[in-house]
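quick one
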Amino acid sequence: MSRKTVKPKGSLIAALDIGSSKTSCFIGRVIDDNGTLEVIGVGNRQSKGVKNGSIVDLDAAESVIRQTVHAAENMAAEVMRGYPLREIVCNVSGVHANAFGHSVKVDIGGHDVTENDIKRALAKAQEKEAKDNLELLHTIPTFFRIDGQDGIRDPQGMFAETMQVDINLVTGDAVALRNMASCVERSHLDISSLCVGAYASGLSSLVDDEIDLGCTVIDIGAEVTSFAVFHSGYMIFCDAVPLGGQNITNDIAQGLTTSKEHAERIKIMYGAAIASQTDEGEMIDVPRLGEEGSGKPNHVPRSFLIGIMQPRVEEIFEMVRARLTDSGMQNVIGRRVVLTGGTSQITGMRDLGGYVLDKQVRLGKPIRLTGLPDAVSGPGFSTVAGLLTYAAEHIDEMPAEIMAQARPDSFVERAKLWLRENW
Ligand SMILES: Nc1ncnc2c1ncn2[C@@H]1O[C@H](COP(=O)(O)OP(=O)(O)OP(=O)(O)O)[C@@H](O)[C@H]1O
Ligand SMILES: [Mg+2]
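structure w/ adenosine-5'-triphosphate:
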């Protein structure tokens, strides 16, 4: 990916993931010229006021965000030397985002394609899509066509009359984003950029070959399962379904008539997505609802618990499969899937996912950061980890940067451009 601009060595970047179950903040420092990041501060708190990826109680969410960011700042204090954080990159839950393909043509006029021509094409697509109720999140050029020649990945330096660019545009719901911005700004932070959660999860958990050859990352969280398709080095599609591990916990609480707290513990200790020979006959203790500590627990076969969990996990994978089929991208999606997010840790997820999706599945977690403390290195932290990578290495895909850079530098260039586009 030769067009990539990376943040300079020494830059500090802060990232915030406001999830349905937890709010996490990572502060990272760029330690070399390739954009490699070292984590210098982390904060993680149970979310409040967040439901299905949406902020529903501004005060509650804001207080958790403040505590989380402070915890990360305190840990990073020595490196930050008293400078408070001013900006932060935030995730946008997939339920508030929409991705769609776009194609624009620009006139090059026989000269060699420059960085500016590309920015101009992207800005043209952005202008077409500007709507009041939507905010542009990502403008990702995927393929270029030069005078009819297909499949070009980097046209810079090539001579052309016209250039056509295929673009993956991702928009976010402006109202949901305004609520989030208002919470974050109350903590005296500006949002430097926004990134779809599943995109970030892919950036942190996929290896380069997967991003290049084709792979789908599925982040199964607490109340949202979001996914992103990567191909030829870029994210080409993303979407989400409003289901996750909390739905599984609720099913267990109902099915075993126990509290949500016990259901959550039982899910993590004994749960599985698929039955195996070894759990035949194994029994588990389930405290009865309202009789915790006093009455005798119920003895329930573990297979009964798995029987409650399996249909819900299947439903989640089936919904993802349906969305992927509807996206019309089956041909480029490839055979590889990486599962991440807190709920990917349920035993047997890989097998059941492989079966329902008919793909080769592996489990993924953040792999690109150095200095990550163990407690925050699991699959639940793929999103926040990837936000750092996004902010460090994907500046070229940020709509505001594109608009700012798409302007010709001098009056003469502006005049030439005007003549080319109008004559
Ligand atoms: N060891 C484990 N085994 C099974 N499930 C787990 C485990 N650890 C966490 N979970 C589940 O993972 C979910 C939380 O995942 P995650 O932290 O990715 O969600 P989130 O980012 O807060 O929410 P979302 O992305 O849905 O808005 C919870 O439902 C929790 O029960
Ligand atoms: Mg999440």
